[in-house]
Design brief:
The structure is a single chain. This protein has 126 residues and is mainly alpha-helical. It has a domain of 75 residues: Orthogonal Bundle (Arc Repressor Mutant, subunit A), CATH 1.10.10.10. It contains 6 helices and 2 strands, in the order H-H-H-H-H-E-E-H. The protein has a two-stranded antiparallel ribbon with strand order 1-2. It starts with 13 loop residues before the first helix and ends with a helix.
Length: 126
C-alpha cells in the first residue's frame, strides 16, 4: 500500500535524520549513568536487574552519601516519596535477597548498607 508520507527513494526524510542525529548528540542522564553502575554491580553478583533492586540500592547509596542509614521502613518510605508504589513486604524481600547474595549487609542497628565488596565493584576497584 502506498503511503505518501514515507519516502520512496530509499532515503530517510530530513525530519527523521535530524531527530536521529540530535538524540545522539546528548550524553546519558546522570540517573542512567548511576543505573548503569548498579546494573553492573548486580551482574557481578549474578543477579538480574529489576526496577525494585535498582531503586533499593539507589536509596541505600543516597542515604550513605548523606551520612544516614536506612532500615526497611526507611527504604520503603524513601521509595514512596519518589512516587514508587511498592509494598513494604516487597521492599523487605528485596533487602533480604540482596543480603543473602552479599550485595548489602544488615547492621546491628537493623539498618542496611552496601557490602564492602559491592562498594569496591561500584568504585571500579574489584
Amino acid at each position: 500500500m502506498y503511503n505518501p508520507q514515507v519516502p520512496t527513494d530509499g532515503h530517510s526524510s530530513a525530519a527523521e535524520a535530524n531527530f536521529g542525529s540530535g538524540t545522539q548528540a546528548f550524553g546519558k542522564a546522570p540517573e542512567q549513568q548511576g543505573n548503569q553502575r548498579i546494573r553492573h554491580l548486580l551482574k557481578c553478583f549474578g543477579l538480574r536487574t529489576s526496577l525494585i533492586r535498582l531503586k533499593v540500592i539507589d536509596a541505600l547509596l543516597t542515604a550513605a552519601d548523606n551520612q544516614r542509614t536506612l532500615g526497611v521502613r526507611g527504604v520503603h518510605s524513601h521509595l514512596l516519596e519518589l512516587g514508587i508504589p511498592l509494598s513494604f513486604l516487597s521492599v523487605r524481600e528485596v533487602l533480604k535477597r540482596l543480603c543473602s547474595e552479599g550485595v548489602i549487609t544488615l547492621n546491628a542497628d537493623k539498618s542496611y548498607s552496601l557490602h564492602e565488596e559491592a562498594a569496591k565493584v561500584l568504585e571500579g576497584r574489584a
